[in-house]
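Problem: given the chain below (303 residues), write out its structure.
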Amino acid sequence: MSKFRTIITLLVLVTLVGCNVSINSTTSTSTTTTTAQTTTDQTTTTEEQTTTTEETTTTTEETTTTTESNSSSLDNSYYKDAIGKTGDQLKRALNDIIDNHTKLTYDEVKYALRDTDEDPNNSNNVILLYTGRSQAKSTFGGDRDDWNREHVWAKSHGDFGKSMGPGTDLHHLRPTDASVNSTRGNKDFDYGGNYDKECKQCKTDSDSWEPSDNVKGDVARMIFYMAVRYEGEHGEVDLELNDHVNNGSRPYMGRLSVLLEWNRLDPVDEFEMNRNNVIYEDYQGNRNPFIDHPEWAELIWNN
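Solution.
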């Protein structure tokens, strides 16, 4: 009986040892599998993140390539007589290129702006300058929160009013909240002042208007265009830039040093490029050179 019990005890011990080995083996296998799966998941996630980054980089490169390709094509044709020039020579060359264009009436401008400034995400709306608000095309008018035509180069600076040419040139006319348009008035552009109640990212004081950061460059490039396009020829006004505010009815707009800075700080965006193309292809037949070549502003006024 004692021998039998000893045998039974040995069998139980052997069985327990075997089970423990099996359990340890299973646990080890499970741990290895889990670790391998985790590593695989992490690798997959990393690969997905890398792919996303590569796709984003590719999109950026495609946009840059498209812009450079378009610019290169224009340089070989539209701008060929301006390439390589600086200072007054560049300014005169650009004037010769852009000054012979189709002129709209002031009433036609109202309808053209519905195309040039159309919201890319809602074809029933326009994007308002300064506020950036998307607003129904049908709300054109003079009442509060309507939109109307803003002369970015104030029409009293040179007293050209609504005359065909400078008073109706789409390259500086933009849809704007009526009350914001009234507040801006004919002020020159500069830093400083108090925040406007309607355009909360804009500032104003007694003699200047500071637009929101995301359109500072847009404003500068429109002003540069006007100073090059209108040189006093064919009975038109001669518009020039200076480094002052309080220009009143004189044909000057400032502040030049600030506008040059804004041109550098706020690069050309897709909305600007599209607007330039629409005006060129569908309405006036001329382009804003400073959208295609922002660096030309420095070569003319800061050379």
